[in-house]
Amino acid sequence: MTAAQDPALRALVGGVLWPGFLGRAVPSWLRAELADGGLAGVVLFSHNLGDEAERVALAAELRGIRPGLVVGIDEEGGNVTRLEAATGSSLPGAAQLGFVDDTDATTAVGVALAERSLAVGANVVLAPVADVNTDPRNPVIGVRAFGDEPEVVSRHVAAAVRGIQSAGAAACVKHFPGHGDTHVDSHHALPTLAIGPAEIERMHLLPFRAAIDVGVAAVMTGHLVVPEWGDAPATLNPAILGRLRAMGFDGVIITDALDMAAVRATVGAGPGAVLALLAGADLLCIGNPRNPGVDAAPDQDERDFREVQHAILAALDDGSLPVAVLETAAARVRALGDSLAGGGFTGEQGGPGVGAAAEGGRMSWDTASVARAALSVDGEVPASTGPRTVLDVRGRSTIAVDGDADYVADVLAGGGRVIRVATAGGSSASGGDLRRQVAVAAETTGAREPFVLLVDAIGAHSPQRDVIEQLAAVRPAAIVVNVGMPGGPLPLAAVHTRAASRLAAEAVGEFLAEGTRHEVTA
Fold this sequence. Notes:
Blueprint: H1 7-14, E1 17-19, H2 28-36, E2 41-44, H3 52-65, E3 70-73, H4 94-100, H5 103-119, E4 124-125, H6 150-166, E5 170-176, H7 197-203, H8 206-213, E6 218-221, H9 238-246, E7 252-254, H10 261-264, H11 269-279, E8 284-287, H12 300-318, H13 323-341, E9 356-359, E10 362-365, H14 367-373, E11 376-378, E12 389-392, H15 407-413, E13 418-420, H16 431-443, E14 451-455, H17 463-474, E15 479-482, E16 493-496, H18 502-514
Parallel strand pairs: 1-8, 2-3, 3-4, 4-5, 5-6, 6-7, 12-13, 12-14, 14-15, 15-16
Antiparallel strand pairs: 9-10, 11-16
């Protein structure tokens, strides 16, 4: 009998798989795997979440299939939201919280993330980000991190984990052993963490230790190579995952999505799944079936799932994957599901934070106060109450963001004109074309009309910084709104928001209406 013909082995394989799916209801193939095939659970993406009635129906459907399902969602606040993908997050993101540096506020955000996720049937919040963003060129972490100092990141990671798990969901910190000192997006290629073990220990492992110390339920791996620890990316590397266990973590190790290019374009999703299990991973996140875009098949979700499932079954048949490895991983996932089904996690919740007040035993707090406190200003910003022209030269959203809505630009424009200059990855395909488009935008905007330049990557040698220099020469009264990380002195007045969210946009919009003469170093 092959593994595929053995119901017990098929269920064991299902117990380590975590697919996404298409549509706003559970498809028949997935329902069968969840109900009878032992499948661990699912991951929800923005395309699964419709209007309120559809969300309530999906949550009820998932809860009714089988007790103990593990249902995940990428919900970080700030830039990354599945629940509010169409409108932008109404919760502060990590960089905002780290800058404000009030751990009670971070705990309150964790509570809110968990409560909102549980409301749609998701009981594992794939947050917080535990990466220390030490490379300002980082295209995929940036403002998703609490900062560039391990001590700051550590205390906020611990606070967020306490908040999430006190509300009854499991937290999953990411991306072990740290994705902050890379300048390649693992959704598109395989990054390298080119620093020594001592530096990794000092700068990047501290937040993961802090999460383990407060009892985090899960840790997500990063698809990145640490040359000092071998040629395989961390997700597929037993030496790296062994280090995580040696740090005292006995919870569930979850892989980052296997459909990301760092795995799919190197070893392949199926072989990668087997290697991840052999390395010590427990739960295999298969990925978002909509990531192929227009090339996605109507049944892309099932195709992605079967590719990984069949590879594991084949590895059981040829003996390259011992059954004992699978049993250990599935047992950890099952224990997590049982814990969540039994009421989830409880823990100490922090007291009221910035703009917060205790109300009826629950946390009631003003997110706008946190977003406003997270703003920093360079130079003199004149008040602009009327419609504004917004020149948006940001790079396109990464796959991690799962959306490319223009709510930030629209909020800043306040009914005015939004001019979007095509860019890719924070840079323009043609420098000359970019300069021409900027010049046209400046020339076609009235001299007295408020002009806002919207950016998100202003580090040294960034094309966006070049645009700022160009604009300063022709529109010295223009205001830069930077939704990425601050990057040194600019020739124009600037407001740094530390998030590209609806909440951050509303905070800076109100700030622009008031204006300031304060000079604050970002």
